[in-house]
Amino acid sequence: MSLGRSIAAIIYLACALGSIAVGFVYLLSDSFIPYHQQALERDWAEFDPAAQMIYLALLDVAGAGWVALGAAIIVLVAFPFRNGDLWARYLIPALIWIFYVPTLATTMKVVTSSTASNPWELLVLCLVGASFALFLDWPWGNREPESEADSLQQLRLFLSRRR
Fold it and tell me: Rounded to two decimals, what is the model's pTM?
């Protein structure tokens, strides 16, 4: 792997580990996340058990999404990205952007409409990091015209080996 791709892999793995960490914070929570409490301006005990159950269920869904994203990135970096498969080199930053952009937008709605101090800076850091990693990897440069077809063939081969 080139130096640029190696640094990109480290950046992607950092985003993956951060995503998994956030996911486990959400999955293991048994009440409000502190900044959620700030946004709602209520104590946990003020909510009836049904509302608490719905809140915890939503935290579990969000946490599972964070963990799934992190796990997917780790697997993609470990195998197809490391092998230089072109499709994986595009897919990893795309997954990060697809997940993090709406998450950041929602977080900013909460930040701008409440007194909560959400950790939005970490979301921006991962988005900027993924963009920088894509730039370092530079998957669109110096390839033969048939490389795109080769990449699709690599994806088909990768998927067929997993069955």
Answer: 0.87
